[in-house]
Design a protein that fits this description.
28% of the residues lie in helices and 27% in strands. Strands 4-3-2-1-5 form a 5-stranded antiparallel sheet, with helices on both faces. The protein has one domain (6-99). The protein contains 3 helices and 5 strands; from the N terminus they run E-E-E-E-H-E-H-H. The radius of gyration is 13 Å and the shape is globular. It is of the alpha+beta class. The longest helix has 11 residues, at 89-99. The relative contact order is 0.27. It comes from Plantactinospora siamensis. This is Restriction endonuclease domain-containing protein.
Length: 101
């Protein structure tokens, strides 16, 4: 199984990007349907949520402040809003594959 590659988008509550970011959207770089993983505060886990990613990144972009960052920056920001580290790219690939079934 080939590991997907991902883009990382920090999500900010305020338009001026007042720290800290409130979440990260991790979107698989694919030519197919959107595959994305976000931190779900309710379940305290990383979940497959392409619907949320599409709404924030592409449909209602003007309603949200997002910033494309590298993985290291996303990893450094994650402790601000998660209780567990960012999944590895292999783990993200598995979450996306399981979620898209």
């Amino acid at each position: 199984m080939e590991t997907l590659t991902f883009d990382y988008y920090l999500l900010w509550k305020e338009k001026d990007r007042t720290p800290p970011p409130v979440n990260v959207i991790i979107e698989a770089a694919t030519m197919d349907q959107t595959q994305a993983v976000i931190w779900d505060r309710r379940t305290e886990s990383w979940n497959f949520r392409p619907d949320v990613a599409v709404a924030i990144l592409w449909v209602n972009r003007e309603d949200h402040e997002v910033q494309l960052v590298d993985r290291a920056t996303a990893e450094a920001a994650a402790p601000n809003f998660t209780t567990v580290p960012l999944p590895t790219e292999a783990e993200l690939t598995e979450i996306c594959r399981e979620g898209s079934r």
